[in-house]
Each structure stands twice: as C-alpha cells, then as structure tokens.
Amino acid sequence: MGTLFVVDIDGTLIKGSGGPSSNALIDCVRTLYGVEGPINVETVGRTDKSIFAQIIEMYGGSLEELEKTYLRALELYWARSPNTLLPGAREFLIKAQEIGHRLSLGTGNMEPAARLKLEYHQLNCFFPVGGFGEVSKDRAEVVRRAIQEAKRHYEQEFATIWVVGDAPPDIEAAKANGVKAAIVSTGWYTHEQLLKYEPDLLCPDLNSLGEVVFQSV
Ligand SMILES: [Mg+2]
Questions:
Q1: Torsions phi, psi for 146 (to 5 deg)
Q2: d(CA 9, ligand 1 centre) in Å
Q3: Which residues, in sequence order, are bridge partners of residue 165?
Q4: How far is the CA of 85 from the centre of ligand 1 (A)?
Q5: What is the pLDDT of residues 1-52, one digit of tens each?
Q6: 148 φ/ψ angles, rounded to the nearest 5 degrees
Q7: Residue ranges covered by each domain of the chain
Q8: Which CATH superfamily is domain 2-16+84-216 in?
C-alpha cells in the first residue's frame, strides 16, 4: 500500500489568481450574453461546473455552449500570456515519482482546460488520471473521483492519501473524503486565512511542503 497525492493546479502547481482563466471567463460572458466584465462570480477553489452553473443562473444559456466558448477563449488567452509555474512544482512531482508515490489530479478545471495548462509546462506526463471540474459542482466529488481513478489506474489501494491544494475547498474536500490536506499558501489565500480551516499541513510553497511530506510518508 503506497501513498497517493491528489494535486490541484491553479494556485498550487501554476500561478492561479487572475490571468488567462479570468480573462477567458469575462470574454466568454461578453461573447454569449453581451455583458461587459468584470463579472461578480467567485472562482477560487471552485469547480468549473459550479462556476458555469452560477453563470447560467445569472444569464441563462446552455452549459454545452458555455463550456465550448470558455475553452476557446482560454486557449487564446493562455497562448497569449500563460501563467507561470509556482516554486518547487516540477521538483515536487519529480521527487514524488522517484520515491514511488502515485499522482492524480484533483482540479476544478474541466479536463481540457487542465490539460492545456499542464501541457504548456510539460506536466501532463505526471498525471495519467485525475478528477476534473466537469465531474461535479462539489469539489469533494472531484477528489473522490481522483482517488477512484488512481486506484483503478495504478491497480492498488493507498495507505496514505494527501490532497495537495491552496484553498479552503481543497481542505474541505480532503476532510469530506477522510484523507489528509497538504496546503500551500501560493494561491489567493494567506497562511493565516488557511490556518483557520485546519489543514494537516500548511507550507509557504511546494519546496517546503516536499521537504516535510517526503520525510513523513
Ligand atoms: Mg487551487
């Protein structure tokens, strides 16, 4: 029985706040509904399914059309100004793999959006499977899927499972699944804010998280 890391993307592996995703969403709402941004929708830590449901509630339209338009806009904005990799991200994944730990994605991004962002930084090779933002409005369900898919793909059970993320929903999703939360404060939330949600581990970035977690697991 090994260890599994269910890893978030925005704010954890790749710089998350603002940038291409937000611009794509604003562009998408302008194109579909003629509404000028910024739009009053919280996105940090939420799944795309949940964000899109709120937009449809506000402006109407179909989910399929919204997803398609968003992905097209994201491709454009990402190509123009991709978000940078966060400190220690690649090293964390390499080290985890070297030790023989398993990796699965647990992200609010729809799979095509997740793959687009990871592709640019050549990180897709670390994640044969995952749970993605189209699975559910509830991040706990996304994490549940990430774990299920990992068990199926790697054909094993796990003694220890960590959710690696940057936001309160990551911590809540870990608790809901009865697994541990290893959190970095490289996203929107500060160390003090995240502490209130009582993660099992809280570090400034993936460099320091790696130092702790690869010793203790
Ligand atoms: Mg995040």
A1: -60, -40
A2: 6
A3: 183
A4: 13
A5: 899 999 999 999 999 877 899 999 999 999 999 998 788 888 888 999 999 9
A6: -55, -50
A7: 2-16+84-216, 20-80
A8: HAD superfamily/HAD-like (3.40.50.1000)
